[in-house]
């Protein structure tokens, strides 16, 4: 039976490759290195199509680079700490460790069925003590560098999960990214990593990342959020204290009509008069319930109260009221703002709402002052009402006013970042214990490195309520202080799992090291990652945190690189066909629809809308990778995913196109069977002269090599690469030279080029043809430029209008090339020797006529 049966051959080759350890990382120091990395998955239980797409793309790149002579590091691992495991423990009484291990086993098996060429000896699992021991060790590096600290902070409190969330884990509606609960605010003592110390470098170094999508770099830059402006001080009337503000518009300082503090500002009660005290305290208490998002929403009334206190505008000598308002955030700038209602939208709304004066100080360059502003004028312009700065252009005035303030000791120029320090404390069990012991005498004392890891205790209770399981374990918590021996208490917070994934790509370089997180020599050998592939949802956090970690570890002398990921590819979503009732917004299960070509709602009979949306259980539009592999095999699944869309674009799942790729692989199969049956072999010699058919086929072969090689550089246009494979197979199918060495070259080339894309069928056919070793160890073919030359034409050579002969030239030759070819030809040499050419007439595609001087 010579039918293509993917089930049989895929299982066979997966076994064989594993036995031969063909995917082990090569160590040959002669070879250049290539580090191909997919973002490692959270072991949720099952692989989804998004994973399949991500890993297939990276696998093609890794396989291709191996064939091109690189030693390739292509590892896989598990981002294995996190909330879902703990939720499973709460809901089903299964231990997070057990749940996680089961999921990993399941998903590893699914990955193996896809024929991904991972070096499993370097597998990394973040919840294993031999990994998190080093996460703790690295935390201590941050601690020793002064980059890990504790502070009381208003945190996002998820009332459902009973845990603190990072800002990034709260969506645009103020809901928890996991539970969906509306997030509240609470004050808690928390651990932070000082990412703000690296804000400037994280921003500036984006420029070096030439292999990153512009979109991702822009998102990071916006997240870091640099603003340039001034720091100005407003003395409090009747006190020695001053209110410092950060402003991007020092040019508007003569338009300040009030100063406003964030409710959390330490000076609020001090500036408040006794008459206003009750009101102010009530207001501050009410703001505590609001999320940051509510507070800053543009369309919301600006709430605030007057404190009764006054500040001095040092520029005008004027006394202005001090207010407290919720639109001022304590964590940004200085937590206080100079109110310029005439030129700031929020201040304008606030002034209108609270009847504060509005004083214009900037007018349009060609305009005049209007007495009644309908809205804030936020554009640049010319200064008025601004004392010595009147008439100045606002851009120049920014500098002049800042400089004046500096000479007077009232302020200075200031660069401000939106980026905040990274809150890493989680009141959860299933994470890395923070290796700190709190001593009443010594404060926060690091656990000595020799005592790492601080192991997660196994026996804990999961109730889902109250403090975290670790906080309830008295026996585990109570330990002597490592410094002075006084009874002390372990930190019970665990780390944000983004910490685990901020350094895993270093660990792969030296995954089994039991003495250190990694040997710097191994890092030198492999880093940076040459190609990183993953979802756009990680454009900000994971990638920014990893860049931060890299810079800190560099400054600690542990790694030599400043940036971890040389090139980044963010693959698009995999979307499924979705049937949706446009009126109710309800998604309908396809199997309940009577006629899919004219879908109607089974409940109401209304026509349904057919749209492509990201695959998800709730939309009934998911396709399980296992099902596709079962039906068509991994090679077809891979080919479809690669063919259907360029890697960075969204991909619409389409059963017909899956079928199409299956048929294509069947055609390749039959092509080789026929070739074999006709006595064809690999490595037949090429004929010395080629027939037209052979030339045509050879051109097709080498065009495929050239095009596919180009597609695999830089941009990774893997969809067009698959299209080229299909073209080559068609050319072989219709070639009229079955027994020629060129045909043999064609079959061999097709299989070799196909190998990274469909690794099993190409290996099987290669072996059937008696190929040596594995196809995945064959060198990548090189395009022969002479074979690429298009058809030749016959060029007539004339001298003084008389035909002297004809030559063969490439059809694509230019006029100048035709003239040169004619001159240099034997005929040309013979008839033109010793003559002076007066003029050359070229008729493209036909003839060259030389006119000679008399
Ligand atoms: C006076 C002013 C006048 C302002 C004007 C703007 C326009 P970015 O670009 O985001 O850095 N601001 C400063 N600290 C704040 C805080 N903690 N909470 C809320 N708002 C704050 O914005 C800087 C501007 O945002 C600052 O410049 C300040 O208002 C406000 F015509 O100062 B400006
Ligand atoms: Zn102590």
Automatic annotation (TrEMBL):
Catalytic reactions on record: tRNA(Leu) + L-leucine + ATP = L-leucyl-tRNA(Leu) + AMP + diphosphate
Motif ('KMSKS' region): 614-618
Enzyme class: ligase
Motif 'HIGH' region, residue range(s) on this chain: 41-51
UniProt keyword annotations, A-Z: Aminoacyl-tRNA synthetase, ATP-binding, Cytoplasm, Ligase, Nucleotide-binding, Protein biosynthesis
Domain Leucyl-tRNA synthetase editing: from-to ranges: 222-405
Chief location of this protein within or outside the cell: cytoplasm
Transmembrane segment boundaries: none
GO cellular component terms attached to this protein's record: cytosol
Pfam family, one: tRNA-synt_1_2
Record Gene3D superfamilies: HUPs, Isoleucyl-tRNA Synthetase, Domain 1
EC number(s) from the headed UniProt entry: 6.1.1.4
Residue stretches making up the Methionyl/Valyl/Leucyl/Isoleucyl-tRNA synthetase anticodon-binding domain: 695-814
Domain Aminoacyl-tRNA synthetase class Ia stretches: 419-575, 614-654
Compartments (UniProt record): Cytoplasm
Domain Methionyl/Leucyl tRNA synthetase: 39-172
Family per record: Belongs to the class-I aminoacyl-tRNA synthetase family.
Protein name (Swiss-Prot/TrEMBL): Leucine--tRNA ligase
Organism: Thermosynechococcus sichuanensis E542
């Amino acid at each position: 039976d010579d039918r293509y049966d993917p089930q049989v051959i895929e299982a066979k080759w997966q076994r064989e490759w594993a036995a031969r350890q063909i995917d082990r990382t090569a160590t040959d120091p002669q070879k250049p290195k290539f580090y191909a990395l997919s973002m490692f998955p959270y072991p949720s239980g099952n692989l989804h199509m998004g994973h399949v797409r991500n890993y297939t793309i990276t696998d093609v790149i890794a396989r291709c680079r191996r064939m091109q002579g690189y030693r390739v590091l292509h590892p896989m691992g598990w981002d294995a700490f996190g909330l879902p495991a703990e939720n499973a423990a709460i809901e089903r009484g299964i231990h997070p460790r057990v749940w996680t291990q089961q999921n990993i086993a399941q998903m590893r098996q699914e990955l193996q069925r896809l024929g991904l060429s991972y070096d499993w000896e370097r597998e990394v699992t973040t919840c294993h003590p031999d990994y998190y021991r080093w996460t703790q060790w690295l935390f201590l590096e941050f601690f020793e560098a002064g980059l890990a600290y504790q502070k009381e902070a208003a945190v996002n409190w998820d009332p459902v999960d009973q845990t603190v969330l990072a800002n990034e884990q709260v969506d645009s509606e103020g809901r928890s990214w996991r539970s969906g609960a509306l997030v509240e605010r609470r004050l808690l003592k928390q651990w932070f990593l000082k990412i703000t110390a690296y804000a400037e470098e994280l921003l500036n170094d984006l420029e070096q990342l030439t292999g990153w999508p512009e979109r991702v770099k822009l998102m990071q830059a916006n997240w870091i959020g640099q603003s340039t402006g001034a720091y100005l001080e407003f003395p409090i009337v009747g006190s020695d204290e001053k209110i410092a503000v950060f402003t991007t518009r020092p040019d508007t300082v003569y338009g300040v009509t009030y100063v406003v503090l964030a409710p959390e500002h330490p000076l609020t009660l001090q500036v408040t008069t006794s008459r206003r005290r009750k009101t102010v305290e009530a207001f501050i208490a009410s703001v505590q319930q609001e999320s940051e998002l509510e507070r800053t929403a543009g369309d919301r009334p600006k709430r605030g109260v007057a404190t009764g206190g006054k500040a001095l505008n040092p520029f005008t000598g004027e006394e202005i009221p001090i207010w407290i308002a919720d639109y001022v955030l304590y964590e940004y700038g200085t937590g206080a703002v100079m109110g310029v209602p005439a030129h700031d939208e929020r201040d304008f709304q606030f002034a209108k709402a609270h009847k504060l004066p509005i004083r214009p100080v900037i007018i349009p360059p060609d305009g005049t002052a209007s007495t009644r502003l309908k809205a804030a004028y936020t554009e640049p312009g010319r200064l008025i009402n601004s004392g010595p700065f009147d008439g100045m252009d606002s851009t120049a005035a920014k500098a002049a006013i800042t400089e004046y303030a500096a000479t007077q000791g009232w302020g200075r120029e200031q660069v401000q970042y939106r980026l905040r320090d990274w809150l890493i404390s989680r009141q959860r069990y299933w994470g890395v214990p923070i290796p700190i012991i709190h001593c009443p005498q010594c404060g926060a004392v690091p656990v000595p490195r020799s005592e790492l890891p601080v192991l997660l205790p196994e026996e804990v209770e999961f109730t889902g309520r109250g403090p975290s399981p670790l906080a309830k374990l008295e026996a585990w918590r109570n330990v002597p202080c490592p410094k002075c021996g006084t009874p002390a208490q372990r930190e019970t917070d665990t780390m944000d799992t983004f910490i685990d994934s901020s350094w895993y790509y270093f660990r792969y370089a030296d995954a089994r090291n039991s003495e250190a997180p990694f040997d710097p020599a191994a890092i030198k050998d492999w880093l940076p990652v040459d190609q990183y592939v993953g979802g756009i949802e990680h454009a900000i956090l994971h990638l920014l945190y990893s860049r931060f970690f890299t810079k800190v570890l560099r400054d600690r002398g542990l790694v030599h690189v400043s940036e971890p990921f040389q090139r980044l590819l963010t693959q698009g979503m995999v979307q499924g066909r979705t049937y949706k009732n446009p009126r109710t917004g309800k998604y309908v299960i396809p199997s309940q629809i009577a006629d899919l070509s004219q879908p109607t709602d089974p409940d109401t009979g209304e026509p349904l809308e057919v749209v492509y949306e990201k695959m998800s259980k709730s939309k009934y539009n998911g396709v399980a990778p296992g099902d596709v592999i079962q039906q068509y095999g991994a090679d077809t699944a891979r080919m479809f995913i690669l063919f259907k869309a360029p890697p960075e674009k969204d991909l619409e799942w389409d059963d017909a196109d899956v079928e199409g790729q299956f048929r294509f692989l069947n055609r390749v199969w039959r092509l080789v069977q026929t070739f074999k049956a006709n006595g064809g072999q690999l490595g037949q010699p090429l004929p010395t002269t080629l027939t037209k058919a052979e030339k045509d086929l050879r051109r097709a072969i080498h065009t495929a090599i050239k095009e596919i090689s180009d597609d695999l550089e830089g941009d990774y246009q893997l969809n067009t690469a698959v299209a080229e494979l299909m073209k080559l197979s068609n050319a072989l199918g219709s070639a009229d030279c079955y027994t020629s060495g060129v045909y043999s070259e064609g079959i061999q080339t097709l299989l070799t080029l196909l190998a990274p894309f469909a690794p099993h069928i190409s290996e099987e056919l290669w072996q059937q043809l008696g190929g040596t070793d594995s196809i995945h160890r064959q060198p990548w073919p090189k395009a022969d430029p002479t074979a690429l030359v298009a058809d030749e034409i016959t060029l007539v050579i004339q001298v003084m209008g008389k035909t002297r002969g004809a030559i063969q030239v490439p059809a694509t030759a230019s006029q100048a090339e035709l003239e040169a070819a004619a001159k240099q030809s034997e005929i040309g040499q013979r008839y033109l020797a010793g003559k002076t050419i007066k003029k050359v007439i070229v008729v493209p595609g036909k003839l060259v006529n030389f006119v000679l001087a008399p």
